[in-house]
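Help needed: design a sequence for this.
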């Protein structure tokens, strides 16, 4: 039996221990580490390379979405399942685009969490209680984004507040490129890229890159084909 190695990350000790205790009963699962902070979690993922990390979305330091994006950008083998105290469609879209393999509410039954972990270990994606292939997940996200986009649509060409260069940077962000990769592609300095990304976040009124991508997708300024969820091969 192939062991599924796990990292459990949550800043509430009682909840985290409950997850650890429940999953420790599964014969095919092994808890190799646990953490209460985002920065430590990312370092544990880098060093211990668990099969799966179950991450709270809201963490001190780096949040779950940011860790997920970083794991994707560094091409680390760990697959991420994000957990949240409140389950909503927009957050699940954020999770999918960031690169998560699963997304579920914290009130999930232990046996259902174990099932999700096994599906993810096999390479499937689990969102909104559904098990998807990569292509099926893309179609699901597309359908949710289309519904959101209609609610934001306006007559004529949609207005957007970005300059041409900021749109170029946003396009690179959508493709999952790091600031260093964007600087190389566009022939500008790393600091200039950081300035443009900061400007995009400020103009959109969002906190991170993933939210900026969702914001632009909703308004039709970029397409899901550009994002390709998280560019997995």
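Sure. Designed sequence:
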């Amino acid at each position: 039996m192939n062991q599924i190695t796990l990292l459990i990350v949550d800043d509430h000790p009682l909840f985290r221990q409950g997850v650890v205790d429940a999953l420790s009963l599964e014969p095919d699962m092994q808890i190799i580490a646990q953490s209460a902070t985002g920065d430590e979690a990312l370092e544990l993922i880098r060093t211990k390379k668990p099969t799966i990390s179950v991450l709270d979305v809201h963490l001190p330091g780096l949040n779950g979405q940011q860790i997920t994006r970083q794991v994707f950008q560094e091409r680390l083998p760990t697959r991420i399942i994000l957990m949240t105290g409140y389950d909503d469609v927009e957050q699940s879209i954020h999770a999918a685009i960031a690169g998560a393999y699963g997304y579920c509410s914290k009130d999930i039954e232990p046996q259902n969490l174990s099932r999700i972990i096994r599906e993810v270990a096999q390479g499937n994606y689990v969102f909104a209680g559904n098990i998807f292939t990569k292509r099926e997940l893309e179609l699901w996200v597309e359908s949710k984004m289309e519904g959101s986009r209609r609610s934001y649509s306006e007559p004529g060409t949609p207005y957007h507040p970005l300059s041409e260069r900021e749109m170029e940077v946003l396009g690179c962000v959508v493709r999952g490129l790091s600031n260093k990769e964007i600087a190389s592609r566009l022939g500008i300095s790393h600091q200039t890229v950081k300035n443009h990304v900061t400007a995009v976040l400020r103009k959109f009124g969002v906190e991170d890159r993933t939210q900026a991508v969702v914001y632009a997708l909703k308004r039709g300024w970029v397409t899901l084909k550009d994002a390709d969820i998280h560019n997995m091969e």
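Residues 114 and 201 are 36 Å apart (CA to CA).
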